[in-house]
């Protein structure tokens, strides 16, 4: 018999600007994704973060795994800006990654500009 439906982790294997955000998700590369995303050098991944979550280091393990290819991490914290916890900032700084929390909308706009400039940028974007 058939194997049934294979559920795979959401992943777009490439760099792409974000075309739109809102209504709980994002549009990029002619696709849409419901929920939060990580935009990393290796691609765009679904991310298990929602507005109001504690931004602990476990949420950023995939970012830290690719830190060698990232200079700037933009963290879209939702509708409002929230500071990053000291432990997370220290871990990122230790990996030579500058981090900047901002609203998700500002992070999307900044990410698109920096990506267009071919900067070593990544983004962790909480859906709004």
TrEMBL record:
TM helices/strands, residue ranges: none
Pfam families xref list: DUF498 (PF04430)
InterPro entries from the UniProt entry: MTH938-like_sf (IPR036748), NDUFAF3/AAMDC (IPR007523)
PANTHER family, A to Z: NADH DEHYDROGENASE [UBIQUINONE] 1 ALPHA SUBCOMPLEX ASSEMBLY FACTOR 3, NUCLEAR PROTEIN E3-3
UniProt-recorded name of the protein: NADH dehydrogenase domain-containing protein
Organism: Hoeflea phototrophica (strain DSM 17068 / NCIMB 14078 / DFL-43)
């Amino acid at each position: 018999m058939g194997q049934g439906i294979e559920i795979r982790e959401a992943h777009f294997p490439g760099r792409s600007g974000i075309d739109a955000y809102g209504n709980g998700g994002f549009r990029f590369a002619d696709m849409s994704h419901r929920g939060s995303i990580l935009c990393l050098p290796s691609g765009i991944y679904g991310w298990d973060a929602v507005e109001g979550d504690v931004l602990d280091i476990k949420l950023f393990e995939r970012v830290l795994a690719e830190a060698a290819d990232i200079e700037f991490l933009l963290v879209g914290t939702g509708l409002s800006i929230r500071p990053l916890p000291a432990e997370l900032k220290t871990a990122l700084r230790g990996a030579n990654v500058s981090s900047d929390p901002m609203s998700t909308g500002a992070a999307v706009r900044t990410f698109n500009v920096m990506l267009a400039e071919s900067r070593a940028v990544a983004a962790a974007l909480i859906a709004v």
